[in-house]
């Protein structure tokens, strides 16, 4: 039987399509949220946190933005998102005798567009000393230009002595 009102029929089909798309988008969003929660839980269990440095157009480490995962704030002794992560804040926590070698490891791999791994000590907000491993990889665009560095920090040992 033909519908004498083709626009209503089209409208009904369009409405079903929009509902289906909306349901699919909700499903996708739920998956993303669940994966983010899993990632957060794994970070907490492993004493780890992720970070990202986004570089300026010329790939200069001096001008960048830094982002931390919630777990990384906690690893450094902060409540998540209560401080702004910066290279200066990171440097503040690195054991002063190790700071130069840590920064050199990051900068050398940035210039080579490679990856790095460096183990060093930090002093967190409470004054406790911890040993961590930083791993990072330089991210390039399709032209081979440096976009940033993706990394992870993992706790090796808490309560180390001076």
TrEMBL record:
PAS fold-3 domain sequence ranges: 66-152
Pfam family membership, one: PAS_3
Domain of life of the native organism: Bacteria
Name of the protein: PAS fold-containing protein
Source species of the chain: Reichenbachiella agariperforans
